[in-house]
């Protein structure tokens, strides 16, 4: 017999969405959109990308990503550079200023979550850590 897990799924979804919303609010640049930060984080942790590759990774259209990259360039967070091996390609690269924004935002998010966790009993923190590992394992299958 199949168990109806829709109520459990709804509760987990709601909790993770609220957590994600609170984490997104912890940012170094308050005016930066989630999409801009996501693109910048890809460049920080995955290295330079072409516009098409960045758009595909983020699941958006190339024109949408072009607007995002344009705004990141205007603020000095990213730059476009010719590919050293194929001059027809242009790579989008994070700047030092962009790296600082990503690193500071990640730090703020980790610090905020650490403060939240500090208020919990050790057993609850252990439970949340186990749940985080289970969630990651489940979605990476």
UniProtKB/TrEMBL annotation:
<protein>
    <submittedName>
        <fullName>MarR family transcriptional regulator</fullName>
    </submittedName>
</protein>
<dbReference type="InterPro" id="IPR000835">
    <property type="entry name" value="HTH_MarR-typ"/>
</dbReference>
<feature type="region of interest" description="Disordered">
    <location>
        <begin position="62"/>
        <end position="83"/>
    </location>
</feature>
<dbReference type="InterPro" id="IPR036388">
    <property type="entry name" value="WH-like_DNA-bd_sf"/>
</dbReference>
<feature type="domain" description="HTH marR-type">
    <location>
        <begin position="1"/>
        <end position="137"/>
    </location>
</feature>
<dbReference type="GO" id="GO:0003700">
    <property type="term" value="F:DNA-binding transcription factor activity"/>
</dbReference>
<dbReference type="InterPro" id="IPR036390">
    <property type="entry name" value="WH_DNA-bd_sf"/>
</dbReference>
<dbReference type="Pfam" id="PF01047">
    <property type="entry name" value="MarR"/>
</dbReference>
<dbReference type="InterPro" id="IPR052526">
    <property type="entry name" value="HTH-type_Bedaq_tolerance"/>
</dbReference>
